Structure formats: structure tokens, C-alpha cells
């Protein structure tokens, strides 16, 4: 059930958006050992972001997962996503933060119930 939300101040066209969503889904699922079929990825573009006093290209992410959040996997996910954002949106890795949340299944709603 991993849910990844990425917000960026850059403008993203629909084809680039598709590739980012697809690549992020595959990367996060692989690192966390979760099936891609359970992944959800949201991409918000043109979000007002000021990073270090600059409006240059930047991004912020949040990854929520039931388990699999750990220092080693967090580093791998951060590296993979930073690479995707740099290659697809020209967001330097130094202008991207990501926050990781490990949640209990009872705190995640799905299909009219919880996990």
C-alpha cells in the first residue's frame, strides 16, 4: 500500500508526468519489496515552493508505507527518486527532500475498511 506524493514547483507535461509516475512506482516497489499493484503515486506540479530562499527547481516528497520503512530502504528510495527528478525535471538532488512514514495497517483505509 505504499503511497508516494511528490510536489514540485516545475511545470510537468502529461508525457513526462506519466514517465515519472511509472518510474517512481517501479523504484519504490522494488526497494520496499512491495507489489507495484499496491502502489499509489501522486505528482503535484507548479506548487509554490521556496527552497533556500530560491524559486529554482525543487521538490518535496512523502512516502507512507505499512512496514518496509527503514534507514537502508529510505536511503535507496531517496537516491532513486532524486535521480528520477533530476533526469525528468532537472531538479538537483540537493533541492529535494523526502519524508518517510511507517504506519500501522489499522491507520490506513482501503476498500471500505482498513488494512
Total strands: the figure is 6
Number of helices: 2
Are there runs of 5+ residues with pLDDT below 50, and where? none
Based on secondary structure, the structural category is alpha/beta
Keywords:
6 strands; 2 helices; alpha/beta; cytokine activity; single chain
Secondary structure topology:
Blueprint: E1 3-8, H1 14-32, E2 40-44, E3 59-65, H2 71-89, E4 96-102, E5 109-110, E6 113-114
Parallel strand pairs: 1-2, 3-4
Antiparallel strand pairs: 1-3, 5-6
Describe this structure in words.
It catalyses: L-dopachrome = 5,6-dihydroxyindole-2-carboxylate; 3-phenylpyruvate = enol-phenylpyruvate. Pfam families: MIF. GO terms for molecular function: cytokine activity; dopachrome isomerase activity; phenylpyruvate tautomerase activity. Belongs to the MIF family. It is found in: Secreted. The protein has 115 residues and is an alpha/beta fold. The chain has a domain at 47-64 and 84-96. Helix content is 33%, strand content 25%. The protein has helices at 14-32, 71-89; strands at 3-8, 40-44, 59-65, 96-102, 109-110, 113-114. The strands form two sheets. The chain has a four-stranded mixed beta sheet, covered by helices on one side. Strands 5-6 form a two-stranded antiparallel sheet. β3 (59-65), α2 (71-89) and β4 (96-102) form a beta-alpha-beta unit. α1 runs antiparallel to α2.
Amino acid at each position: 500500500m505504499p503511497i508516494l506524493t511528490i510536489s514540485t514547483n516545475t511545470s510537468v507535461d502529461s508525457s513526462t508526468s506519466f514517465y515519472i509516475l511509472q518510474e517512481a512506482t517501479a523504484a519504490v516497489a522494488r526497494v520496499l519489496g512491495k507489489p507495484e499493484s499496491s502502489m499509489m503515486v501522486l505528482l503535484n506540479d507548479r506548487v509554490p515552493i521556496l527552497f533556500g530562499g530560491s524559486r529554482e527547481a525543487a521538490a518535496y516528497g512523502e512516502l507512507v508505507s505499512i512496514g518496509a520503512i527503514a534507514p537502508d530502504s529510505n536511503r535507496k528510495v531517496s537516491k532513486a527518486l532524486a535521480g528520477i527528478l533530476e533526469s525528468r525535471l532537472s531538479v538537483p538532488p540537493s533541492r529535494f527532500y523526502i519524508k518517510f512514514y511507517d504506519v500501522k495497517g489499522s491507520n490506513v483505509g482501503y476498500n471500505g475498511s482498513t488494512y
